[in-house]
Amino acid sequence: MSNRDIQAAWKYHEETKHSHWSVRNNPHFLDWANKPLPFKIYPGIETFPLSRDVSQTGVAALSAIADRPPPRRAIRSLTFKI
Q1: Which of 29, 34, 67, 70 could form a disulfide with 74 if both were Cys (CB 3.0 to 4.6 A apart)?
Q2: Number of folded domains that form the chain
Q3: Is 52 a member of any domain?
Q4: On the CB side of 25, how many CA atoms lie within 13 Å of its CA?
Q5: Residue 68 CA to its chain's centroid (Å)
């Protein structure tokens, strides 16, 4: 299945969506005090600071997440300084 398989997405949506009956039969509510932690915690793993001095790539954020890949000149690898 590809990410563009619209029929599969609609089938999944139709089979998993709430109905009027299911919402009225078992009403849920939000418990605002019961929420997950905002960050992952990995106990026992050594941490290291990331560099705050990062050079710009010259690619706009929306272009970077667009369907097409960025131009070859903008592709660079990341390096970590430990």
Answers
A1: 70
A2: 1
A3: yes
A4: 5
A5: 18
The whole model's pTM is what? 0.30
Q: Is residue 10 part of a domain?
A: no
Pull the structure tokens for residue 8. Answer: 């599969």
- The residue count of the chain comes to 82
Is position 63 within any domain? yes
CA gap 22, 42 in Å, rounded: 38
DSSP code for 51: P
Q: How confident is residue 22, by pLDDT bands cut at 50, 70 and 90? A: confident
Domain range for 49: 41-82
Domain membership flag for residue 8: no
Only one residue has tokens 């009403």, namely 27
Q: Give residue-wise pLDDT tens across range 38-50.
A: 998 999 998 888 8
